[in-house]
Amino acid sequence: MQISNEEYLLFKPLLFSLGYRMLGSVVETEDIVQETFLGAYQLSDENIKNKKAYLCKMLTNRCLDLLKSARFRREYYVGPWNPEPLIQEKLHDLDPSEVIIEKEGLSIAYLRMMEHLSPDERAVLLLREVLDFSYLEIASILEKKEENCRKIFSRAKQKISRIEGESLNYEINKSIIDRFIKAFQTQDMNVLLELLSENVTVFSDGGGKVNAATRPVQSLSNVLALLYGITKKFPNFNFEVKNVNGQPAIIFYMDSKIQSILSFHIRNDKILEMYITLNPDKLPTS
């Protein structure tokens, strides 16, 4: 398949967007995107009418194969699993070809919910809801009947309905997180009670590589006890709020290296869930 430099620059962020949402892993997605282009270069253009759809089909099939094997590996994962965080620049700094990466369905909360879907449900949902493919195009990509794809989409939407209503307003969410940080530092319980859900839950992902809670920590009192315990254990850390997966998150540093990333699920101005990623395999090295 002949792919011009302009087409490569156009399709690469789209393929990354699809692959990352399916896999929740930056490293695995980058590998699969490159494999997809290498595979495409070896094909003849003769029967390929829509390069975008064909590339998405190639990448989707590779992701489906990986997901099926990953399900086996995931059963032996130590503790909660969080997606690999994607640290980004603000939207207005992005090249127009990369804007697709900033669309909906990118938050850590959304990607965690994707774990409740089968590989086919994940593919149909993303192709339809994020990339705006028609059911006819999805049916062609997945080699299924159009009506079957509609049913798969409906089933997937029902499974992730809990995430609907998530606040994706960056500036509002940042103001909530800034208030949370200040209240946490000053131990202002009135503000913390205002910002945190009574049933707030923390999912701490250490992957068995570092110390982390191996089960979700639930309830306001338990979550605050966990967070205060962490700050006492690591008194000399630095932090900053940055754009992670399209939303504000707190990045913690130890000895100038990223030690962990804390992401949030916010709805109706309340923090419902927090996701602490400590697994060094999922953290940027620079």
Write the layout of secondary structure elements.
Elements: H1 5-23, H2 26-41, H3 51-74, H4 108-113, H5 119-129, H6 135-142, H7 146-159, H8 170-186, H9 189-195, E1 196-205, E2 217-218, H10 220-233, E3 238-244, E4 247-254, E5 257-267, E6 270-277
Parallel strand pairs: 1-6
Antiparallel strand pairs: 1-2, 3-4, 4-5, 5-6
Helix pairs in contact: 1-2, 1-3, 2-3, 3-6, 5-7, 6-7, 8-9
Short description:
By secondary structure, the protein is of the alpha+beta class. Helix content is 48%, strand content 16%.
Q: Which architecture of the largest domain per CATH? A: Up-down Bundle
**CATH homologous superfamily of the largest domain, by name?**
PhyR, sigma-like (SL) domain
Lateral strand order in the biggest sheet: 2-1-6-5-4-3
**Percent of sequence in beta strands:** 15-25%
Q: Report the strand count.
A: 6
Keywords:
10 helices, Butyryl-CoA Dehydrogenase, subunit A, domain 3, elongated, alpha+beta, 286 residues, Nuclear Transport Factor 2, Chain: A, 2 domains, 6-stranded mixed β-sheet
Give an account of the 3D structure:
The protein is an alpha+beta fold. The protein has two domains: 114 residues, PhyR, sigma-like (SL) domain (Butyryl-CoA Dehydrogenase, subunit A, domain 3, Up-down Bundle), CATH 1.20.140; 113 residues, Nuclear Transport Factor 2, Chain: A. It is built from ten helices and six strands. A six-stranded mixed beta sheet has the order 2-1-6-5-4-3.
